[in-house]
Amino acid sequence: GTSGGRRRRVLLKLSGEVFGGGKLGVDPVTVQAMAEQIAATVGKVETAIVVGGGNFFRGAELSQSGMDRSRADYMGMLGTVMNCLALQDFLEQAGVETRVQSAISMAQVAEAYIPRRAIRHMEKDRVVIFGAGAGLPYFSTDTVAAQRALEVRADEVLMAKSGVDGVYSADPKKDPDAVMYETLTYDEALLNNIRVMDQTAMTMCKDNGLEMRVFGMEGEGNVTRAILGEPLGTRVTV
Ligand code: UDP
Question: What ipTM was assigned to the predicted interfaces of this complex?
Answer without folding.
Answer: 0.99
